[in-house]
Specification:
heterodimer; A: 520 residues; alpha/beta; 2-enoyl-CoA Hydratase, Chain A, domain 1; 3 domains; 5-stranded mixed sheet; 39% helix; elongated; B: 72 residues; mainly beta; OB fold (Dihydrolipoamide Acetyltransferase, E2P); 4-stranded antiparallel sheet; 0% helix; 56% strand
């Protein structure tokens, strides 16, 4: 026995902590489970390496006289540091069992501390979002005038440390802007949503009667709006996906992405590409199969796979080195680029460039879609955005031209002039300002119009197009030294591995500036 | 009932199915031609082709109705 009576004091610590760990109490926990959701504590167990969790502010409460004596465990926001694959990650996890996970003053102060910590320690931050948004009960007055630092701070973190927002519940307003400023946003199907205004606010403000799911569910944001990256089946899959995503990233922008050992030889011949890709340039095929064939173990982490499907983006590894793949998809819209495809690619390129992940571009693109419909959508500024992102990127940039690569489509897919570090083509490659069928109508328009007989005109058009086609040949580009090599498709994986090896220490210095003026 | 609409302004190159025909998810309904590419239009639902609104050599605008499938 000791001389001093510590028993009650130590016991009190335990009682207080147990109360906090009970979250919103058994009824609320049961309700959470009945909705098909896990509790915040269960989520942390699945997300983090066992035994690594260091909690900050477990004993926090609301401290708000307006709310009275009611105890709000951790003030509805669980914060701390845990590890994923042995690397520390800052966590902000809203607890829906505590006042619907609403954003209280103390909880938000705790999360602010995590943001500061993440930035200071240069570690990624993950938000587990399951929150109704602002705690209006506490913030309905004009003290709102001082609010909003959370978003500004996230902007300051952007591109310095990876940020992930896992959508695990219905989130409105404040908790819908957090994911907007994160790099990666997976959404659980059925139980998660994000919208600037929640259902009741929408009904009151604009008279629309719409469910959270219809307005901002995973189907809306992963297929239509492009605000989220992936739709997942449940909480467990969502947390697994977050771990997998972070495995491609360094802890911060001053570090390199971690390599992972692989048994897949870098010089493995990719002969299946002979079957996948038709030599006839007009015929469609599934570019995802090409990507899968090329990368380590056929393992690709697709980003935004259900939105702007005319371009595919994904994280993968070649020879253990993480890479970002940007590839045209001939199966959708012929692979032609539109406003959403340009947005999707630009965003992905910025993401990879920010975190030193080399980029691999697989070209099969007839160009940007033309016509009045896309002009009204602002194809020029959206196309410029992709051009901007690819031009700015200073990571190793490797291009493989599979078949077509026409016009500005060739530029934005990292053509030679875009500081492509290694650019190779298949024998089927066609690089030109436009295809022969289009060019013939511009170059020889007057000559063709002068021919009165329809059949004769068609015959002459084909003849002239063939003359143009003869100059659209990878060996013409290679002859000018504008392609570094023409390769056997079965050599594609090896070529990319070569490109990565020779660019590993790439360094580009740009003139100092605050930032460019981004087309958006 | 599922409507299939054109996602891009295009010429109709080939119509692959007929009205009344059974189709499976992912089957081609027609092939458009735009941007010098063949663009297959597929059904995302299985069922019967109830209405077909396009014919070869016709032009479609983005959003135009191509077919209606009675979902099975």
């Amino acid at each position: 026995m000791t001389n001093h009576d510590w028993g009650p004091l130590v016991g009190d610590v335990k009682v207080r902590k147990d109360a906090a760990l009970a979250m919103g109490g058994p009824d609320r926990v049961e309700r959470q489970h009945s909705l098909g959701k896990l509790t915040v504590r269960e989520r942390l167990d699945l997300l983090l390496d066992p035994g690594t969790w260091v909690e900050y502010g477990l004993l926090a409460d609301h401290m708000d006289a307006g709310i009275g004596d009611r105890f709000l465990a951790a003030d509805g926001a669980v914060t701390g540091i845990g590890e994923i694959d042995g690397r520390p990650i800052a966590i902000a996890a809203y607890d829906f069992t505590v006042m619907a996970g609403s954003m209280g003053k103390v909880g938000e102060d705790k999360i602010a501390r995590m943001r500061a910590h993440a930035l200071r320690q240069r570690i990624p931050m993950v938000w587990l979002l399951d929150s109704a948004g602002a705690r209006i009960q506490s913030t309905s007055g004009s003290s709102f005038a001082g609010a909003g630092a959370l978003f500004r701070e996230q902007v300051a973190m952007s591109g310095v440390v990876p940020m992930v927002a896992a959508m695990l519940g219905h989130c409105a307003a404040g908790t819908a802007y957090i994911p907007a400023l994160c790099d990666f946003v997976p959404m659980v199907k059925g139980t998660s949503s994000m919208a600037l205004g929640g259902r009741h606010l929408v009904k009151a403000a604009v008279g629309e009667d719409v469910s959270e799911e219809e307005m901002g569910g995973s189907a809306v944001h992963t297929k239509v709006s492009g605000c989220a990256d992936l739709e997942v089946a449940d909480d467990a899959e969502c947390l697994r996906i977050v771990r997998a995503y972070l495995s491609f990233f360094p802890q911060h922008n001053g570090d390199r992405p971690p390599k992972r050992a692989t048994a897949d030889p870098v010089d493995r011949r990719t002969e299946e590409l002979y079957d996948i890709v038709p030599t006839a340039p007009r015929r469609a095929y599934d570019m995802r199969k090409v990507v899968t064939a090329i990368v380590d173990d056929g393992d690709v982490f697709w980003m935004k796979p259900d939105w702007a499907k005319n371009i595919v983006t994904g994280l993968a590894r070649v020879g253990g080195q993480p890479v970002g793949i940007v590839a045209n998809q001939p199966m959708v819209l012929g692979g032609a680029l539109d406003v959403n495809a340009a947005d999707k690619a630009a965003r992905f390129v910025w993401l990879c460039d920010a975190f030193n992940i080399p980029l691999v571009f697989l070209h099969d693109v007839p160009g940007f879609i033309v016509g009045s419909a896309v002009e009204k959508q602002g194809i020029i500024r959206h196309g410029a955005k992709m051009l901007f992102a690819v031009s700015e990127a200073t990571v190793p940039k490797i291009s493989v031209v599979l078949r077509k690569s026409y016009g500005a489509g060739y530029f934005v897919m990292n053509g030679l002039a875009y500081e492509a570090d290694y650019i190779v083509a298949w024998p089927t490659a066609e690089i030109a300002v436009m295809g022969p069928d289009g060019a013939v109508n511009i170059i020889h328009r007057k000559q063709l119009e002068a021919i009165e007989d329809d059949d004769e005109r068609t015959a002459r058009r084909l003849e002239l197009a063939e003359e143009i086609r003869a100059n659209i040949d990878p060996y013409v580009a290679a002859g000018h030294g504008q392609l570094d090599d023409v390769i056997d498709p079965a050599d594609t994986r090896a070529a990319i591995a070569r490109g990565l090896r020779i660019t590993a220490d790439k360094r580009v210095e740009r003139p100092a500036r605050k930032h460019g003026v981004l087309p958006v | 009932m599922a409507e299939i609409r054109a996602e891009i302004a295009a010429n109709v190159w080939q119509v692959v199915v007929e009205e009344g025909q059974m189709v499976a998810e992912g089957d081609e309904i027609c092939i458009l031609e735009s941007m010098k590419m063949e663009i297959p239009v597929v059904t995302e639902v299985p069922g019967v082709v109830r209405e077909l609104h396009v014919a070869p050599e016709q032009t479609v605008q983005e959003g135009d109705l191509i077919a209606i499938i009675d979902e099975s």
